[in-house]
Amino acid sequence: MVVATDNYPSSNARRIPPTNISPNTILELEKGDPVVFEKYWKKRSEECSVVIRGWELMSYLGDAKNDVCWYMLPEVERGIRRLHHVVGNAVTHDAHIVVGTGATQLFQAAVFALSPPHSSKPINVLAAAPYYSEYQDEISILRSGLYQWGGDAASYEKNEPYIEVITSPNNPDGTIRGPVVKSEAKGKLVYDLAYYWPQYTPITHQADHDLMLFTFSKCTGHAGSRFGWAVVKDIEVARKMTRYVQMSSIGVSKESQTRVAKIIGVVCDGYQNFGSMESELYFEYSKRLLRERWGKLWAVIDESKLFSVARYPMAFCNFTNESSEPSPGFIWLKCEEGIEDCESYLLGKLKIRARGGKRFGVDSKYARISLIGTDGDFNEFLKRISNA
Amino acid sequence: MVVATDNYPSSNARRIPPTNISPNTILELEKGDPVVFEKYWKKRSEECSVVIRGWELMSYLGDAKNDVCWYMLPEVERGIRRLHHVVGNAVTHDAHIVVGTGATQLFQAAVFALSPPHSSKPINVLAAAPYYSEYQDEISILRSGLYQWGGDAASYEKNEPYIEVITSPNNPDGTIRGPVVKSEAKGKLVYDLAYYWPQYTPITHQADHDLMLFTFSKCTGHAGSRFGWAVVKDIEVARKMTRYVQMSSIGVSKESQTRVAKIIGVVCDGYQNFGSMESELYFEYSKRLLRERWGKLWAVIDESKLFSVARYPMAFCNFTNESSEPSPGFIWLKCEEGIEDCESYLLGKLKIRARGGKRFGVDSKYARISLIGTDGDFNEFLKRISNA
Lengths: 388, 388
Description:
Two copies of one chain form a homodimer. Chain A is α/β, with parallel strands linked by helices.
């Protein structure tokens, strides 16, 4: 069924451009490698170049004066605060910044920092299903005595302290979320806001939580840099997170840090300097890219008898000053009657590698598919599901 | 007592150059920040420059064809193998390379990979005292059910499986080591060869162990890059280590990787290209730097009634084709009679921050002091201990 809820930029959404991918090639859409944004950075290539000379950035130290996160370069901290100020997606003025080797390392640092250090039993770490598929393994891999995976937050009924991870917009399904645990027990909250950027979802408010995680990978698409940051109100929690990163990897690559500072600077300059062309600004451009893809996707899904995707509510974005639907980085596909295992069906029939619902704690009728890969892969994906 | 065991390059070792550090300033020599090598890289600055453009290195992937370490750039693997071939310090031809965010992350990856996954009790991780001060905390921080800190390998008597870490040359004391556990039980070995490079110690043989760890920090002095590598014979162990790094940080900074490949390339080119001036080659230059410092240090220590340092045996280095004493990156200082706590004495009386023996599992009469800091700090250190 066609539901016209939003105006998508492409006027010919139904035309799927030809690709030169053989129908026998497996489409690798299981991971969320954000290469869609590469074409923007090609336009900004020289402006964003960093040159690192042989003798530079040799020390472990980033800023001897920083008594919270000693390995962070000062320009990185300034850049992060400036970016949140420009976008208006998070309050940082009364919080500390801790950087990590991606949000993956910082998620573990946060759980470590919030776990009671002397408890006789591990604290439960929860997330509402469908939850990010890697949380469980990251929490469980070392069989820690400090914390353990506690499963779906919505069905948690123990009267024991817990840590709830709130992923918003959610990975895999792009929904906006708040805490869901109903237990009377005291819980600590970690907000994973990796996708709370204007290209993915309307910025409806400045997030202002005790502990928020962000990552460069999903903000600008530079996943190879392995760089993330936490915005943390309690200085002791921030220090414990820093201690975790120190024990885990003695800090964060200075090469990545210097590049992050450069690229964030270029993004912010675009918004703050007179004379920038709005359509060429990073978040406008990247939002347009994703909305074009979603427009094409809806055109296919609306005609499909085999697959469906839940609609997202419109919302007003304070950053772009317009109402729109979200345009998440993943497609959370549901197979209709007759197909019980969506992942297997996609791989077996269509040679599309997706990540099945079970990995996210839900039914195998669902599968997650990356929307942020190459143009070729995305168009081939559309072709295959529209012919299915 | 003066013992002339070696010819040190500086003819006026006893002259300590003046510094402009105030006697009230605390000298920070507790960490091993390898900034001494900066002056070499200033000479090679442009040659070693990397330029990273805005759109480059965006993917999580390093090499889709690598079925062991998928996030490693191919040029990094080639560079690592080439470097070991040039230096002759390790056999790599029948082994896999796994890269990590410093040897710190890889040490934990190694212990994870070697721990029995389904054992009812954690395996003991051991190292002979004095051992690297961070092993214990890295092993203990998450109270893992897979492994636990087992203390001094020399006094291990349990008839249970174990993992022994062999650090050679050793941190803190620079000695050459082999396994020491006498137990009948079966042990697995991890060789931490961070300092097995020609500037620190004669290269007497090609190390050829099942699992060897190296780090860029101590090889070239680029500690800020947070880059290390493991040479691993068993493909399943290598894959488990990769899995650990994936769970911990989804790989390793591509910016660091691209710089590592560049700098290793410049080092190797120097040795393999016709016309290089030997004294300007990296290992010759850096060895000279450290030997100059050791020459000055011996001149002071030999006159000291308060402090002593154990002598190292001479050995023939296959790489430099000469016999010499080692020139370790740390001074393992022993306080003589009357001073029970070396760390406290140094800090209280001489305003020198060192790391005390207790942290390394031995007597507090010992303390570790970095020899690889700035010229100013090193000379000020000499002045203070010679006046003590």
